[in-house]
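Predict the structure of Helix-turn-helix transcriptional regulator.
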Amino acid sequence: MTVGPERVRWRLYGLIHRNPDRSLEEMARDVRCSLAEAEQVCDELSGVGLLVPASEAPCGYVTVTPEAALTRLLSAEDRQTTAHLQHVSRIRTAISSLISDYPRLRDERREAVEIEILPAPALVNAFLEDAGSTATVRMRSMHPGGAPPEGIIDDMLLRDKEMESRDIRVEALYSRRTAETPHMAAYLADAERPGREARTAEYLPLRMIIFDDDLAVLPIDPDDSSRGAFAIHGPALVRSLHALYDYIWHAATPSHLAPAGRTADPVLDAQDLAVVRMLADGLKDETIARRLGVSPRTLSRSIAGLLERLGAQTRFQAALRVAELGLLD
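Done. Here is the predicted structure for Helix-turn-helix transcriptional regulator.
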């Protein structure tokens, strides 16, 4: 705060102290300043408590001793400090109360999500097996990358048949390039039946399997499946994963890739049906050939021709196809 010159300020304070019966205008002339400057100085002195307005005094003020002014100023500051500390204390109490209640309020907006780490492929496979056996409504899977080995196609068909027997809806997404692999084309053709549907897309972002509405399995590292997977339990996050799956699913192409020769029922003779029955019973080629009275090489050619007519890639697929056609009844 700007104050008047020291000489004017202290001379004016002295005049008011010694001659309170004089007017302020007279005192201004004595200290050689204007009335406005004198009024400004009085305002400054009042601000620090050295003057107190007094209507009965001709100059409008009476003086306060510096000691008394300082005591009053410090007392006022003490009162303000005390009030401020009390205000801070009230704020601290209110915040402490909120802090104690906040976890409960926060939990009201949270849904439980549990993430289980499956650090090895063997653990992932075992977990998927268990999850599939306990699914109650649906299973949705997304498979980027190359085709699975031909040797596990029969296992995939068995899993699909087991889920079909429990009325579990199965949806699967594969890359278009994978679907062009012969053994995958045959598998996808077999997958097209009520309750099971497969679709293909040019690009799939990551491997993902969703069971019902409360469990999803995603890779820890999408580029390295050997690092294992996360199992995400809880509907809150799985709902979002379903939304992602829906987006890709609706943009994908339904898989109608049935091989040639599947549009009409194949014609099988008695020997073909006998071969299929023995394959379904798990007999070895040598045993089947011996029972039919043919050489193992002749049997191999017969089985190859049988698979081609049935549009199957594996013997297990052939047995399923014959069973679907009712040819073993």
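Strands lie at 51-53, 61-63, 114-118, 138-143, 169-175, 196-201, 208-211, 215-219, 229-233, 253-254.
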